[in-house]
């Protein structure tokens, strides 16, 4: 069965272009032209991935993302017409998995879509490469059930936050650059802005650290990257 992708875009020409290219790749495509319709179609069709524009009539892409992230775990790729860093950070902080700034190439969009779907499927499949439950001090990560807890209290993590935490936990003590984390966790070679990793690390610290300003788990190795301390 083909993966189902929901495109939410009010620019009819861009919507048609994205849809055409995705169908050519064998995806099942559904579409919405405004924020309210996006919620309706997403709840009815239960897509495996959403491509969501920020600037939408009725409800903004940010609001749609915020609502749907509470209801489903499908990866969300946000599209923004602005190069404004604030838009990108807001999207990531409310649960988007990645973003692209318009204009973009269809080749790059398709690469992102393939990578995000691949990672989502891997997350649904219990891993045979290591223990199902990883315990690091008070932090416990159940990779089979996709759950994490700290001192016995369940953590509310977005799918990408969990993927990042689980990867670092499996490789406890090893330092990874932002580029390496993008490749290993996001699933593609992202040559450019690495803010995506920094934002997800910051969000994780707010959830697992007693003092996010002085982390004891997710440690920055200056000039190199990040590691999870054992």
Question: Short summary of the structure?
Answer:
With 230 residues, this protein is of the alpha/beta class. It is built from 8 helices and 11 strands.
Structure description:
- With 230 residues, this protein is of the alpha/beta class.
- The chain folds into 2 domains: 4-124, 3-Layer(aba) Sandwich (Rossmann fold); 133-228, Winged helix-like DNA-binding domain superfamily/Winged helix DNA-binding domain (Arc Repressor Mutant, subunit A), CATH 1.10.10.10.
- Helix content is 42%, strand content 20%.
- It has 8 helices and 11 strands.
- The chain has helices spanning 12-24, 35-45, 61-69, 85-93, 106-124, 159-170, 178-186, 195-208, and strands at 4-8, 28-32, 49-53, 76-80, 98-101, 133-136, 139-142, 147-150, 153-154, 218-221, 225-228.
- The strands form 3 sheets. A 5-stranded parallel β-sheet has the order 2-1-3-4-5, sandwiched between helices. Strands 6-7-8-9 form a 4-stranded antiparallel β-sheet, with helices on one face. It has a two-stranded antiparallel ribbon with strand order 10-11.
- Strand 1, helix 1 and strand 2 (28-32) form a beta-alpha-beta unit.
């Amino acid at each position: 069965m083909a993966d189902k992708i929901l495109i939410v875009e009010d620019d009819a020409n861009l919507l048609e272009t994205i849809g055409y290219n995705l169908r050519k790749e064998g995806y099942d495509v559904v579409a919405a032209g405004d924020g309210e319709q996006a919620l309706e179609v997403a709840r009815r069709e239960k897509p495996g991935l959403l491509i969501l524009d920020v600037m939408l009539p009725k409800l903004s892409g940010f609001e749609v993302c915020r609502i749907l992230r509470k209801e489903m775990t499908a990866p969300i790729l946000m599209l923004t017409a602005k190069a404004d860093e604030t838009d990108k950070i807001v999207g990531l902080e409310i649960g988007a998995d990645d973003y692209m700034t318009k204009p973009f190439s269809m080749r790059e969009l398709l690469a992102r879509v393939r990578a995000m779907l691949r990672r989502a499927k891997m997350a649904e499949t219990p891993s045979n490469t290591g223990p199902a439950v990883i315990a690091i001090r008070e932090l416990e990560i159940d990779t089979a059930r996709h759950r994490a807890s700290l001192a016995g209290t369940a953590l509310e993590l977005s799918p990408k936050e969990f993927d990042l935490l689980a990867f670092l936990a499996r490789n406890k003590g090893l330092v990874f650059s932002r580029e390496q984390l993008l490749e290993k966790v996001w699933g593609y070679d992202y040559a450019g802005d690495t803010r995506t990793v920094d934002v997800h690390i910051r969000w994780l610290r707010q959830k697992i650290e007693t003092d996010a300003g002085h982390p004891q788990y997710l440690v920055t190795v200056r000039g190199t990257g990040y590691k999870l301390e054992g």
